Amino acid sequence: MALVLTRKDVEELLTMKEAMSAVEEAFRQYALGKVIMPLRTTIRIADYKGVNLAMPAYVGGEMDALGLKVVSVYGDNPEKYGLPTVLATVLLNDPKTGDLLAIMDGSWLTAMRTGAVSGVATQYLAREDARTAAVFGAGVQARTQLMAVCEARGVTLARVYDPVHDVRDRYCQEMGEKLGIEVVPAASPRAAVEGADVIVAASSAKSPLFDGAWLSPGTHVNGVGSHAPAARELDTATMVNSKLVVDQREAALAEAGDVIMPIDEGHMTADDIYAELGEVVAGLKEARVDRDEITVFKSVGLAIQDVATATRVYQLAKEKGAGTTLSLA
To answer: Is 69 in the active site?
Structure first.
């Protein structure tokens, strides 16, 4: 019997604190060599401007979790079909037997786990007294990113830039009410960046969002919106002048234009990647060492985030009697 969990179930069960705890442990186990995670398989459906990805992982150690996420990203969905851009389903298996434990909606889980990894990175890399955030983008992902940054640090002010002003303004109102902080529109990218302690790039941009020369000493940047070799949100100056931490070296060098393009330009090499996030979480590499260094976390998204978060959702569902059981026999 498998447990079926809808998006509503996942939303009601999963808090950002729980998601960050699960993701943090997954990255720790990855750094300790307790993870099996092939690179995701990608099918690009050019006729429909879509991408379909399969992301399996096993997280060993105390977590002991096995699963697979299938996720589609179709940019035309909202306008043409009234569907979300990202659609995902997670299958969770018993690692001891392979038996199917759960089928759950993965769309909200994807947004939460992506926010959560930035929250973990912020927890380790941002200054302790970080209070001002800048957010680029005003979609679903920008919402969970700000939730996570607020969970990691005592943010009191967020400045938001999005070229679609009505979307930006609605985001500011909704997130200000949700988080109980001041969330205000930024008139320009520079107005958002200057003086910010933490910057979140969670947009659909294909080219840099801001000039790295605008960053104040001690700023921490999370780059999560771009995940293709020919797209980037962060410019070369930002990457070259920072301590760069990635979720996984192999994935970043294969998929992250923010990393690939400065390397192709000859401004940096793969050796300029300081650490993977798991190495920082596990204490194998130092996090921030002084107040003035600029830190960047570049994420393309890993299956361990999905499997770890789905496992926590499953545990919470069992504890609270949520979901519906389904027999496939």
So the answer is: yes
